[in-house]
Amino acid sequence: MSPAAPAESLDLVVSCVIDAPPDKVFQTWTDPSKFGDWWGPHGMTTPVVEMDLRPGGVFRTVLRDPAGNEYPNSGFFVEVVPPHRLVFTDKLDADGRPSPEAFMVATHAFEDLGGGRTKYTATAAHFSQEKRDQHEQMGFHKGWGEMLERFAACVARA
């Protein structure tokens, strides 16, 4: 048996500063009617968004790429602390059953920088080094970076 890697090595992280206070940034993130405007990389749409913003509440999305391929994701919220933090995982599916495809725990932090600015940080903590490496090879930094661009633009429009 080999020792487990420190948890930090299983994390992938992106962040940006958004010119809006945390309340507005958090509200935009949690508004299902705006969610599809920014969730996912450039070119993707989100035709299905379901979120029950409470610990144990369902979080379900379907991403669609330009070719029409769909990528369903489901799980539940672990922590909801307006306007500072959201945590969800796919460890259980939306029906509360263990997910054989469990991949990560996602933490979204909204840090008040003062002056009407927020540092938004998204952390994907993976269940294994293999899943972390797979996510990075899928284009995590590019895809989540594009998502942050789309999100900041959506907040600016709100």
> Describe the biggest sheet?
7 strands, antiparallel
| Unreliable residue stretches | 1-6
- Compute the number of strand runs: 7
CATH class, named Alpha Beta
- The proportion of residues in beta strands is 35-45%
* CATH fold topology: Alpha-D-Glucose-1,6-Bisphosphate, Chain A, domain 4
What strand line-up does the widest sheet have?
1-7-6-5-4-3-2
Measure the end-to-end span. 52 Å
Question: On the 0-100 scale, what is the average pLDDT?
Answer: 90
| Helicity, as a percent range | 25-40%
Number of helical segments? 4
Q: How would you sum up this structure in a few lines?
A:
The chain is of the alpha+beta class. The chain is 25% helix and 38% strand.
Account of the protein in words:
The chain is an alpha+beta fold. It has a single domain (12-157), classed as START domain (Alpha-D-Glucose-1,6-Bisphosphate, Chain A, domain 4, 2-Layer Sandwich). It contains 4 helices and 7 strands. The chain has helices at 22-30, 32-35, 129-137, 140-157, and strands spanning 11-18, 45-51, 58-64, 70-81, 85-89, 104-114, 117-126. Strands 1-7-6-5-4-3-2 form a 7-stranded antiparallel β-sheet. The protein is globular and about 45 Å long.
